Amino acid sequence: MTDLAASERAASAPTGTPPAHPTTTGLSHNKLAMWLFLGSECLLFGALIATYMFAKSRLPAGELGPNDVFDIPFTSVSSFVLLMSSLTMVLALSALTRGEERGFRVWIVATALLGGTFIAGQVYEFTVFYNLGLGYTTNIFGSAFYTLTGFHGAHVTIGIVMLMSALVASLRGRLSPRNAETVELIGLYWHFVDIVWILIFTIIYLFPQ
Amino acid sequence: MTQTPPAPTEAPPAQVRPPADEHDGEQHEHPSDRQYVKIALILGALTALEVATYFESVHHLGDAALYALLVVLMVLKFIYVVAWFMHLKFDSVLLRRIFAAGVVLALGVYLVMLTAFRIWGG
């Protein structure tokens, strides 16, 4: 009965406000689950960043290290590209909530392209580092670096797949302002990947070596 | 002797709370596109400042000052994205607390770990 009452309350919510959720918290369970997942991801990336910092501090003198391989100007451009993809993502969600399907598609494709550019940059960077002699098992720095940035790259790739899925759903007419929460959840994941890179870029690349 | 039936009572809404926006008394209006662009410009400027620390001209500041500056810029960018792009500034307090719990837990655990391994101070 209480569920029914909550559903009725949800149905009678004034237009312009987000749909109410007849749950114990008043929040969408999907959104709650996504935030719980992102909270747990902080621990995953925290572990990888901490491991990298530890590995770098134990790198024997004379071994191939960050100073020998990093190309800060190139990585700065990649970072900027990923940062701007967060802007296009929010613009996509904003367009969808206004019911602008065409705008949504343009911004979601732009987001995926920017994400793809970032991944292409990472592949190029890995190739350059490998040619400079830094393989996955070359030393403790290489292992930690490739593991951390590889995990991040995998997350970006999964994000691109999600963005493409949203585009396909939109093209099939399955996305509308009513189910914009699906895109909001993809956006949360995408922005999380962005904030992880904000940390990686500063701690791994920019901190004085 | 007749017994009057008990008046039908409505079950208290013990399990279901009102929607989060009523419950928290917070605004849930999302920012406008213009505001998003402004935030992106701020983020771009902060990134440019970060990258500027890479060049030799600011190295006279010393490592400690560079670390401090970079941490401040990184935290500012983190907060801007989480608050505006992820809408946590406008969303439920519960979601804010869940994410903050993950961040604080990770920060605490790994700072202790790195301290235990004595990685600070070169």
Keywords:
A: 209 residues, mainly alpha, Four Helix Bundle (Hemerythrin (Met), subunit A), 76% helix, elongated, B: 122 residues, 0% strand
Would you mind describing this structure in some detail?
- Chain A contains seven helices and no strands.
- With 209 residues, chain A is mostly helical.
- Chain A has a single domain, classed as Four Helix Bundle (Hemerythrin (Met), subunit A) (Up-down Bundle), CATH 1.20.120.
- Mean pLDDT of chain A is 91; it is low at 1-17.
- Chain B is mainly α and 122 residues long.
- Among the domains of chain B are: 30-86; 91-117.
- Helices cover 59% and strands 0% of the residues of chain B.
- Chain B has helices spanning 20-24, 33-52, 63-85, 93-116.
- In chain B, α2 packs antiparallel against α3.
- Chain B is flat and about 45 Å long.
- In chain B, 24% of the residues are buried.
- The model of chain B is unreliable at 7-27 (pLDDT under 50).
Quick rundown:
By secondary structure, chain A is mainly α.
SSE diagram, text form:
The complex is a heterodimer of chains A (209) and B (122).
Chain A: H1 2-11, H2 29-57, H3 66-69, H4 72-97, H5 101-131, H6 140-171, H7 180-206
Helix pairs in contact in A: 2-6, 2-7, 4-5, 4-7, 5-6, 6-7
Chain B: H1 20-24, H2 33-52, H3 63-85, H4 93-116
Helix pairs in contact in B: 2-3
